[in-house]
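Exam review. A common question shows you a sequence with its structure tokens and asks you to describe the fold in words. Practice with the pair below. Do the first one on your own.
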Amino acid sequence: MYVEVVKSKIHRVKVTGADLNYIGSITIDEDLMDAANIIRGEKVQIVNNNNGERLETYAIPGPRNSGEITLNGAAARKVAVGDVLILITYAQMDFEEAKTFNPSLVFPNEENNLLT
């Protein structure tokens, strides 16, 4: 049996941009992506703590050490600059493997989204 479990989480980052005219995705500071073990193109669930919105898109890397968190395309309508988000990815794995799996959890500085 396979189960879906949390693979990685970036906890409480602030939206730095919302670009409606981009083709889609979420731009994430590449340092945060590395720390959370998220790869380019990976599906990301976005939970908006300010308005309760939940949506899914895919990750693209932003400039390192920039703190960038930008929602692109239609997702830009679901956030406002300054909103606090939780970013989550999931993985499917064997039930026994899942029992011992440890997700990558990242808690950046809430003011600037940088790793502390």
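Now try the second one, then compare your answer with the model answer below.
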Amino acid sequence: MFKALADPTRRFLLDLLFARDGRTLTELESGLEMSRFGVMKHLRVLEDAGLVVTRRSGREKLHFLNPVPIRLIHDRWIDKYTERQASALAELKTELEKPDE
């Protein structure tokens, strides 16, 4: 997944899907200056990483953002490093709000 997120074009595609989910390849490629085939290759990497899910709707293939893998990384790696700072701030707040004795 980190390899998929490392590319700015793929992050841009995820941002487009975050803004409005369920886009076609044509809609996604209109925001980029690259060939249709290039966009398809980027989408394939995102699909393989589980960040994009596709579904057929009639003749169209719609692409949807799957935020679950990103959330799992957040919970596993980012959240645990911010817990210590948050608890320290809560303790500081409690200490500062104690009435003077």
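Model answer, second protein: DSSP finds five helices and two strands in the chain. The mean pLDDT is 89. Full marks require stating both points clearly.
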